[in-house]
Amino acid sequence: MTKRPNMFQRYFGLYPLEQRIEDKKRGVGVQKHPIACWVLSAAMLGVLIYELVTNSKAQGSPFSFKPVVNPMLGPSSSALIQLGARFPPCMKNVTDFPVTTLVPCGCLNNTANPATEVCTLEEICGFGGFHDKTPDQWFRFITPIFLHAGLIHFLLNMLAQLTASAQVEREMGTLSFLVLYAAAGIFGNVLGGNFSLVGSPSVGASGAIFGTIAVAWVDLFAHWRYTYQPGKKLVFMIIELIIGVAIGFIPYVDNFAHLGGLAMGLMVAMALYPIISPSNRHRIIVITLRLVAVPLAIVMFVVLIRNFYKADPYAACSWCRYLSCIPSSANNHCKGYVIYETLPALIIDI
Fold first, then answer.
1. Catalytic residue positions?
2. Which residues touch 202 (CB under 8 Å, ≥6 apart)?
3. pLDDT tens, 114-153?
4. Are 331 and 193 in contact (CB under 8 A)?
5. What share of the chain is helix, strand, coil (3-state, %, to 5)?
6. d(CA 316, CA 300)
7. pLDDT tens by residue, 303-318
8. CA-CA distances (angstroms) from residue 108 to 13, 24, 68, 330?
9. Burial level of 312, CB count in 10 A (0-12/13-18/19+)?
10. CA proximity to 29, closest of 2, 4, 11
């Protein structure tokens, strides 16, 4: 009886080519259980419960109904900002939202409509404030990954995470999967921080999840000959991608988190995904693409983080905002700055 390869041998392909091809056709990956997906999902459930408890303590209900209804059955925008949502005014100086801004409806415990009290930006952002200095809450590139706008948002993301993302973890192994998940999730927030509506908070794991979905594209083209009906699968994947991008134009959904996660997912997947190379030519192509993907991913991060802090993102790419926004008076024609009568509506990564 042939000895089954261990996890290390599966990831690096250190067992016979014919057996590797057969495993690929059968959908056998590096490991059996998606441990990271289970742990991440449990952690996100815990964070969601904490969000609802926080809102309940402040407003008397776990779900926000006043002054603004949260259609995702979750806490208020104010609560999510205080808990770590991506919100550029808490991360850097925003010209149209200075530190001295007083915001009606921004106070966590204010349920009156219209608002009866105002709060400073420092109070809204929480985490100890800025002490009259430049906002510098850089961790908001990371924390939104674990936050969700409500029960509906959480269930939608967990459905994808515990199915599509879980299969990717089985194929890549937990360590490589975590690198992919973190890089895609953070880069989705970096891209969104650059080009999404500046005055709107954003939460969700969709950037990370789109990054894991990007693996399917690398897998398809790298293993075209071993895939059952690859042409049909490609058509379905294109349709899924179009639908995913189209959803990003729905108000309050952050398309940049989707696009950023997808782009970084392609880079990291190209660098880390186990690929079967049946010939020297194929192996050389794969190695070359891996060597290109790593520095390109680093450059993408460096350029966009620098652009976020050092330049006006809209000036760097004046048309980029329209990749996630249909101009209207409600969003100030995609200029994205807040109207101070109310705290801006939440942007959700679905």
1. 206, 258
2. 85, 86, 87, 144, 189, 192, 196, 254, 257, 346, 347, 348, 349
3. 666 778 888 888 888 887 788 999 999 999 999 998 999 9
4. no
5. 60, 5, 35
6. 14
7. 999 999 987 766 667 7
8. 53, 51, 12, 23
9. exposed
10. 11
